[in-house]
Amino acid sequence: MNRRELIAALGINGEVLEKLLAEGLPSRDEIAMNFDYDEVMKWRKEYVRLGIDQLLVGATYSNHEVVNAFKCSPQGGMRRSRMKNALVLISDHTGKALYEDRWIGDELHYTGMGQEGDQQLDKSQNKTLATSNETDIRVFLFEVYKEKHYVYAGEVTLAGEPYVKLEADAKGNMRKVYKFPLLLKDKFYAIPEDDWKRATIVREKVVKRLDSTNLEQKAKALSERNKQDQLDDKRDAYRLVRKREFFRDPLIAEYVKDIAQGVCQLCEKNAPFETRGKPFLHAHHIEYLAQGGADSIDNCIALCPNCHARIHELEDKRDKDKLLMKVRERK
């Protein structure tokens, strides 16, 4: 097989072939550029796996590490790698991306390529993704919840036909975009809890900056879309989150609530209601367990739900000092 025939068989161009040769692609005759197709395919199979197979689902990587593993572009949301015969998809949830990718059930409905005007399904990487089930190209997904932190979701497949939605383009004009339903091959993929919380906080900050008119318009539009999505898909939008759960023994919690005698130790008012004949209070760790606090009586105190929310929302040192004083008095 000569050079031209190999280029056609691999679906690459001369530049990519030169890069593959530099990486070690075997040739029978380097001058005449003759190749043994079976040898080439055996080598390429191992070459494609090199770097990619070492990635761990759920782990976080830098953009440099993504580029190095896939030999793809360092920019863009859809990155075609002809050297690895792969398509790398980046789903940005930092609030800076124009596109909004949405999880429905265990599928990610990924937005296609094109920031202005109607997107085209038969062009560029939209076409690559749309036909991926009919070709030998492999598709891989990364999610970004913190800038420059790429969480590896693993390999994905196209789970259904791409469909059209109306969304605003980079200039605010409504246009047609394509949504690609993607199904994870690794069902146990979950994002780190900290990343999910960070994305939620960013979203809240953006929303709080809206004036009343924009807030009303956007909320009503989102509400209608969510209702329609529910009718169309009959599935909930959710994310699997990998969470570190600190052990809280109910014995400690129940004891500090019992000695509080139904009174919140911050506002010093009675519990708002009773459940199963007991005042409803929360057990709060003054030094958070996530920050090294102990699950101990000396570090635990009873609060009403309102004051518990206040503590975590404001983190006012005066509130903390008062609770520490209450613990000392309790002794």
From TrEMBL:
Residue ranges annotated for the HNH nuclease domain, each copy included: 251-309
Alphabetical keyword list: Endonuclease, Hydrolase, Nuclease
Family matches, as Pfam families: HNH, SRA_ScoMcrA
Alphabetical list of CDD domains matching this protein: HNHc (cd00085)
GO MF, any single term: endonuclease activity
Residues spanning the signal sequence: none
Spans traversing the lipid bilayer: none
Calcium as UniProt keyword: no
Protein name from the UniProt record: HNH endonuclease
Highest classification ranks of the organism: Bacteria, Bacillati, Bacillota, Bacilli, Bacillales
